[in-house]
Amino acid sequence: MIRASLAALICLAACGEQTPPQMAADSALAPSEVRSGYTFLQPETQALQDDDFSNPSYLWIDRGAGLFSQAPEKGGAACASCHTGANLPLEGAAARYPAYDEASKSLVNLEGRINLCRQQHQALAPLAYESDDLLSLTGYVASLSRGESVSVSIEGPAAPYYEMGRAYFFQRKGQLNLACSQCHNEHWGRQLRGDTISQGHGNAFPAYRLEWQAFGSLHRRLRDCDAGIRAEPLDYGSELYTAVELYLASRAGGLPMESPGVRR
Amino acid sequence: MNTQGTLAAALMVLLSACGQDSGAGLASEVVIEADSIPASLTGEAGSMAAGAAEFVSREGGHCVLCHAIEGLEAEFQGNVGPDLTGVGERLTPGQIRLRIVDAQRIWPDTVMPAYYRTGGLRQVGQEFDGRPALTAGQIEDLVAYLSSQGS
């Protein structure tokens, strides 16, 4: 009897050793050490972001400003005719996204919110995720919040999305079996070959990435990180990436909005 | 049979049962003794020169992502993992082999990937599913290269 239970104990220990945890160890950034990805960049890359005339994002932002004030071809109101300085101003709005939307009963990020306005207020079809038009509009609207502190709500109906995003952040996955937290909570500041691992905040996005030679969304950045650990990336605009976006924004609470940022 | 013998036998049986149902399978059957895999995965010795190339190349092991070795010709060597200069003096070839095959058996929370593992993973990219990150041959080349460090 004793021998059998002893053997069972040994087996449990052995099995435990052979099955590594599916969730990475619990970890967190101390509030005092939260830093934007900007602070890890080379001075030349920082300079590109700092100067609107050399920041390549402005190709998209200027285009977005144009689209914003253009009335739809088939008639109807331009974004700018509803969102004026006095009425429904969008300054600071991007810093509060993703947010839970009562009407659609879902979590929407800035891209999603813009598409809702197209559908509900302009009778237009939603723009495809990562299309130049949607990136340009999103970038333009985000630029109106530059310098504002990231501040999302994770209460009430947003709470389950926050938990979902958090779980993804700590979930080990991919052929390399890594979780976001292992790089961005446990090893930020370290060199991963030529890259300094930052804390993985989303406050610069949409951003121009030198590696892309293009302006791109946060979901595109997340797809790159997932692909890097050889995990199957999720779809653009998926509920789960939007939930991760909410978790990241809450984790980055208080950091200034940098979009349109420039990254390596 | 004495108590020790019975226990050892039971342990052997249980261990192999665990191996099957734990889901954390390796790409082929491998005998692990303590913190080491004494036998070559291919039955042959690897090539040091090929291992040095594997250690650096993006398509291969790309170990320089996280590790540096003094004197190795590769720019921007990482420091997420420990410096592996002279690692052949600290570890036996068998110990190095297990660390490449499945470092997570030794350190469950490590960021070091388990390069010969195919089981117990989730959301693996389609093109990588069902195969290990490195082949047995690539691992043997790395074992040969790293074992030569420091000697």
UniProtKB/TrEMBL annotation, chain A:
Q: Which residues bind heme c 1?
A: C79, C82, H83, C117
Q: Main EC class of this protein?
A: transferase
Catalyses which reaction(s): S-sulfanyl-L-cysteinyl-[SoxY protein] + thiosulfate + 2 Fe(III)-[cytochrome c] = S-(2-sulfodisulfanyl)-L-cysteinyl-[SoxY protein] + 2 Fe(II)-[cytochrome c] + 2 H(+); L-cysteinyl-[SoxY protein] + thiosulfate + 2 Fe(III)-[cytochrome c] = S-sulfosulfanyl-L-cysteinyl-[SoxY protein] + 2 Fe(II)-[cytochrome c] + 2 H(+)
> Pfam families attached here?
SoxA-TsdA_cyt-c
Gene3D superfamilies assigned to the protein according to its UniProt record, in alphabetical order? Cytochrome c-like domain (1.10.760.10)
Domain Cytochrome c residue range list? 59-145
One annotated GO molecular function: electron transfer activity
Stretches of the chain forming a coiled coil according to its record: none
The active site annotation covers: C225 (cysteine persulfide intermediate)
Write down the NCBIfam families for this protein, in alphabetical order.
thiosulf_SoxA
User: Can you tell me which family this protein belongs to?
Assistant: Belongs to the SoxA family.
UniProt-recorded name of the protein: SoxAX cytochrome complex subunit A
The beginning of the lineage is: Bacteria, Pseudomonadati, Pseudomonadota, Alphaproteobacteria, Hyphomonadales
UniProtKB/TrEMBL annotation, chain B:
Q: Which controlled-vocabulary keywords does the entry list?
A: Heme, Iron, Metal-binding
Q: Which PROSITE patterns match?
A: CYTC
- Classification via SUPFAM superfamilies: Cytochrome c
One example of the protein's molecular function in GO is: metal ion binding
Give the organism, scientific name: Hyphomonas hirschiana VP5
Concerning Pfam families, the annotation shows: Cytochrom_C
Gene3D superfamilies the UniProt entry points to: Cytochrome c-like domain (1.10.760.10)
User: The organism sits in which domain of life?
Assistant: Bacteria
Question: What is this protein's record name?
Answer: Putative sulfur oxidation cytochrome SoxX
* InterPro entries named in the record: Cyt_c-like_dom, Cyt_c-like_dom_sf, Thiosulf_SoxX
Q: Which residues form the Cytochrome c domain?
A: 46-150
